[in-house]
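Cross-posting from the modeling subforum.

Setting up a comparison between two proteins and wanted a second pair of eyes on the formatting. Protein 1 (sequence, then structure tokens):
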Amino acid sequence: MIHLYPQKTMRLHQLDILQHRFDLHTYPKLEEAHGRELAGYLGENSLPYYVNLLSLGTHHDLYGLRLELAKQFFQIDGLILHENLIVILEVKHYKGTLAINNARQLLQYIDQEPIVYDHPLLQANLQKEQLRSLLHLHKFPQIPIHTLVIFTHPKVNLSFSLEEEPDMLPVQQLPFKLQQLFSKHPKKAWNCNQLAAATKKLLKLHRPATANVLEEFKLSPRQIRQGIFCPTCKPHVLQRIYGNWYCDKCKQKYPLAYHEALREFAHLFGPTINNKQARWFFRLESPSTTSRLLSAMNLNSRNACKNRSYDLTPLIK
């Protein structure tokens, strides 16, 4: 059973939004960052299907779990909790040909020159020790923990064999590998209550990462494209005509299109907005029109009249 589903990070949400609210041609690093962040999410999102192909009995799965130990955070792409065994899944959404050199580094060949990475099991094994320490800190009995590196890109070519790297495999092999692992650990290390308690504790300790891409890349809010975008013709901007949002390209009306703009504002600038900020982001001149649009959302608000601000938190949960 999945207790924590794969989710987009705040950073990916922000980078997604900048794909149509920023001139990427002037800042290619944004596109590169988006590609890397999206690859991580796509890889993580592909895991549940393969994990659930195999009947493992009662197991609790958590994806994108971010934990703190000794004032340092570590993130686990996939975690399978079972009474017999815990399995950590480290996801790599790499394409091209992958090889391991004599220095135990991972080489990725897409064109001619290889891209060099640390051996993926180094990170996974560090996560294993951090998780082991965290469970010990919270008084859980010892349990075997195994780490696997899973390659999820459909166009990956692994030039090493499972005999050479038995814990690094394409995602299609994951069900068979899990079956093999659990057959080697037939004895229970935890009872069902301890399994449930560990899952509950880890969920309570989960701390999703915050992000501020504008600050990270030193972007000014003035560089962000304002306006309500047509859902069909994005990034074409809708016009406010006779109390409705109208697209002069597809000739359709979208009365609720500003809801998505508010969600994007919340991701980029924070979970509160006032009338002045909304007018700027919506490209509206009328304070009264803006006030009616915000009031129609039934959002919680603070203060009154000119100082009123609206809570956008429900839009980004």
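Protein 2 (same layout):
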Amino acid sequence: MKKLYFLLLGFFLSFVFFGCETNNNVSSEENTFAGVLVDEQDIPIPYAIITAVKVSEGKTNILVNEQIVFVDTTDEDGNFELKNLPSPLSSIKLKVEHPDFKPFEDFILTFLEKQDRKKLRLRVLHNDDCCGLITIKTLGPDSAAIGNVEVRLNRGKDVIRKGKTNDDGVITFERVCAGNYWVRIAKEGYQVIEREFGLENCDTLNLVYVLQHKEVDSCCNGVLKVEVKNKSNGEVLNGALVKLRKNGTLLTTLTIKENQPVYFRELCPGTYSLLVMKEGFKPVEREVTLECDDT
């Protein structure tokens, strides 16, 4: 049995946050919206900032003020949620910010004309100088194509895009910005591949990776359970992001949903770092060491 600050019992982690929220606008739970942010390829965009602002006009309909009413950051799958926006919705504008993409803004009613408020799909465009092309092909030990392989394109510690190879073992990322990247390639039953590479401006890369069958490791069945709560009232913080890293490498990011904890499975022995983030709260980071098959 192990214990850490914020309650750790048998690797059950309960993160507790302090935070404060103020909102002088009258809002309604009916004015809650959710959706996904995607790029030109319809690939979800992680870690973009979506801001809802209330637009005020003068007597001559000239914009005189913009008041921020809600801010959210898309998760690893591009999902976002905007809660309890004030009425009237005709005065609410959405703004999207991400260093790889052109600034985007439009009134929320524009999206509601043809979309469900809980299934919005917002599309933004890359910056003009993001013109690289990366094609990745995954093969097996017999040189046959392997499909349904998860490919994560990372820059630094953050995932930039992710997707799965098609039946021909191919995935293509278009309009990629110049920079230093690394990919993580994974499929159940195969060894994980991680490789670094650089991409010049408007460069084209064709990368081929051969996956090897995974050797059975009886010690890599560890499970880590994480629960995130607000210390001021004990409520579960839905929407909180939980990032799991090992040796500085981001392994995966999970999101607290429906008042339920998240589980990290198939973990090998070693020391892991957990970073928990939630808009309006101070991030919390903790380390935990797992032994063989700890749960």
